[in-house]
Amino acid sequence: MATTLRLHFEDTMGEKVTLSLANVRGDLTAQEVQTAMDALVATPVFGYGPAAVLGADLVDRTVTELIAG
């Protein structure tokens, strides 16, 4: 099963932005994620940077290969 962490932000223009991180630990805590998101808001690593935290979620996905190709 693949676990993806989706981080939801609002940018400086008021637009919603989602950052998806693949293959994260499935046991991440809300506090760990909140701390990381707050750090991203405080440090504009993408040039313009997210302005506000909107939320986050973990997505678990199972892929079953039916025909190898």
The percent range for helix content is 10-25%
The whole-number mean of residue pLDDT values reads: 91
In spatial order, strands of the major sheet run 2-1-3
Class by SSE composition? alpha+beta
Count of helical stretches: 1
Number of strands: 3
**Strand/helix succession:** EEHE
| Distance separating the two termini | 20 Å
Number of separate domains: 1
Contiguous uncertain segments of 5+ residues? none
Principal-axis shape? elongated
Q: What fraction strand? A: 35-45%
Rg for CA atoms: 15 Å
Question: Largest beta sheet, briefly?
Answer: 3 strands, antiparallel
What attributes does this structure have?
DUF2922; DUF2922 domain-containing protein; 1 helix; alpha+beta
Give a written overview of the molecule.
The chain is α+β, with helices and mostly antiparallel strands and 69 residues long. It has one helix at residues 30-42; strands spanning 2-11, 16-22, 50-61. The chain has one domain (2-61). A three-stranded antiparallel sheet has the order 2-1-3, with helices on one face. It comes from Aminithiophilus ramosus. InterPro entries: DUF2922. This is DUF2922 domain-containing protein. It holds the Pfam family DUF2922.
